[in-house]
Amino acid sequence: MSLSNVKSQAAVDIERQQRRAHNVRNVTKRFRVLIIGRANAGKTTILQRVCNTTEQPKIFNQKGHEIDSSKLDPTAQRGEHDIENEMIFESNGAFVFHDSCGFEAGRTYELDKVKEFLQKCSTNKRLEDHLHVIWYCIPINDEARPFTRAEVTFFDECGTGRVPVIVLFTKADILDAQTIKHLVDTGMDIEDAANKAPEESVAMFEKRFGQQLYKKKYPPKGHVYFRGMQKPTSDCSELLRKTAATFSDDTLLQLFLTVQQNNVALSIEYAIKRITELSFQVGRCSKKRESGRRWLGRC
Question: Is the separation of the CB atoms in 31 and 256 below 8 Å?
Fold first, then answer.
């Protein structure tokens, strides 16, 4: 194949992918996320950061009717929403969130609800009703017991099919006090220990527990750490990057990059990656053609 043909074919391939992604976005401009986690795991705060807002989400039932939050039962007001309900922030209505309150020992019906929801989403005919990613929030404020038995059970028993799962280790900053004490005990100055603690806390947890869930039958696709999410300056750029990296389907990737509005750099990064891949294809063909010319010259 000639160099010009490779350029032409690569351009056609990219145009086809872009046209497919554009067509899908015309069908659905909604990216659907299931967020799972115990009460006080920091779920709402993370979603607010993703949507760049401090507002509370509006909640809609399965028929699309808005639910008055003041009329929700006490468990729903604490964040234990019906998994079928949609949570949408006005600042970015393209993100549609579903909330599962997480799993407690002895409450197997919560896990069953998630399994049923996943099955239902996978059989929906409309793409906009499909589930695209799961964010599983696990607070790591108890280093002696980082995972509950129910959380481990999820990764042992709950296959999610093509829907990727990303673990969000939240509240990592709570480990800092213990880490500072450990560093001071080893002879470090307390000010230096305080500066080093954020990095050291994550490193120690990662070494001891970070890979445990990957040994399960249904491991996550990745994980990220969160600290200080209550601060206005906190962001979710690493979560967005990890989420984008899980999509092998270019259509879903393009949909996600379109929906997320906070990280322009991420969209640029993937645009550059696409150009680099095209350049590599062209360069590889050019080398093959030159090698062929040299071989013919020796004949």
Answer: yes
The pLDDT score that the predictor gives to residue 201 is 92
Instruction: Report the C-alpha gap between 281 and 293 in whole angstroms.
Output: 19
Is residue 268 domain-resident? no
Q: Which residues pair with 222 in a beta bridge?
A: 166
Dihedrals φ, ψ of 47, to 5°? -65, -35
pLDDT single digits (tens) 85-106: 999 999 998 999 999 876 665 5
Read off φ and ψ for residue 210, nearest 5 degrees: -55, -30
Is pTM beyond 0.85 here?
no
In contact, 84 and 67? CB cutoff 8 Å: no
Task: Specify if 275 maps to a domain.
Answer: no
State the DSSP H helix or E strand holding residue 93, giving kind and residue range, or none if neither: strand 92-100
The model's pLDDT over 17-28, given as tens digits with 9 standing for 90+, comes to 556 556 655 656
Which domain does 233 fall in, by range? Answer: 29-249
Helices marked H in the chain — which ranges? Answer: 3-27, 43-50, 74-77, 108-123, 149-157, 176-185, 190-209, 237-245, 250-259, 264-298
Q: Decide if 70 is inside a domain.
A: yes
CATH number of the domain encompassing residue 160: 3.40.50.300
